[in-house]
Amino acid sequence: YFSQIYFDYSTGGVINTYGQSGLYAKGVQNGDDLTFAFVPYTNTNTKYNFFLQKGTTGNYVYQVEKTEEKTLKGDMVSTYSLSYSNNKLEYVTSLGSDSIPFETVTMTYYTGQAGEQTMQDIFGYRKPYDDAPFDSSLYEEYTKIHSLKEIHSADGGKIRLDYELNGLPNATEGVPFGGIRIKSIVLDNPTEERCDTISYHYEQAFHTF
After folding, report:
1. Contact 46, 77 (CB under 8 A)
2. Integer-rounded Cα radius of gyration of the chain
3. In whole angstroms, what is the distance from residue 121 CA to residue 178 CA?
4. Rounded CA separation 18/97 (Å)
5. Who has greater pLDDT, 113 or 169?
6. Mean pLDDT: which of 7-11, 54-58, 116-120 is highest?
7. If you average pLDDT over residues 175-193, what whole number do you get?
8. How many CB atoms within 10 Å of residue 160?
9. Cα–Cα distance measured from residue 61 to residue 53, given in angstroms and rounded to the nearest whole number
10. What percent of the chain is predicted at pLDDT more than 90?
11. Of the candidates 32, 149, 181, 206, which lies 20 to 30 Å from 159 by C-alpha distance?
12. What's CA 136's distance to the chain center, in Å?
């Protein structure tokens, strides 16, 4: 994987970077779009193309629009197409070597009540709208807003994520702190009529950042 990618616009739009897992990447900027080609050192038969589009949250925010796996001869192996809504990933569609879609994974996110106004708390998460912008009160249900809630697979399976408020440790119990951490993950497999839950517990309520 790549721990960092450096964008050097002084090189005529050509971007090179090295990763930590024997990967080499070369990118080309074309207007608001970026294309990266990733070639593993340990695999001489395959390369990966990443097509990025500029997001709407800032000039330097890019979203992966599509990934391709090709042989070095240029033959298509597979493609993943990514779709966004309000800068949140909504769909990942898998396409075969013939570029025909065969599977789509859908993501949903926590939202507030319809028509209810919210505002940022002092940590940058959501809270009920009020006249106290610097109030340090925390609201677990509101803090979840915009976080990933469910992942729906093409076969009807579902992964549900729940969160709890972050915490700082003190001598006896955790003190609520800004942000959230994973509380549980539910794996719902209707094909096998099975539903498993993974619960997370944090020693002395240590924070997760």
Report:
1. yes
2. 21
3. 8
4. 28
5. 113
6. 116-120
7. 87
8. 17
9. 9
10. 25
11. 206
12. 27
3-class secondary structure for the chain? CCCCCCCCHHHCCEEEEECCCCEEEEEEEECCEEEEEEEECCCCCEEEEEEEEECCCCCCCEEEEEEEEEECCCCEEEEEEEEEECCEEEEEEEECCCCCEEEEEEEEECCCCCCCCEEECCCCCEEECCCCCCCCCCCHHHHCCCCEEEEECCCCCEEEEEEEEEEECCCCCCEEEEEEEEEEEEEEECCCCEEEEEECCCHHHCCCC
Q: What are phi and psi of 9, to 5 degrees?
A: -80, -5
Per-residue CA distances from 209 to 91, 166, 179 (Å): 28, 9, 9
pLDDT band at 112 (very low <50, low <70, confident <90, very high): confident
Angstrom distance (rounded) from CA 62 to CA 36:
12
Least confident of 28-42, 133-147, 186-200: 28-42
State how far the alpha carbon of 10 is from the alpha carbons of 7, 28, 35, 133, 173, in Å.
9, 12, 17, 42, 52
Q: 117: which residues sit within 8 A by CB, 6+ positions away?
A: 128, 129
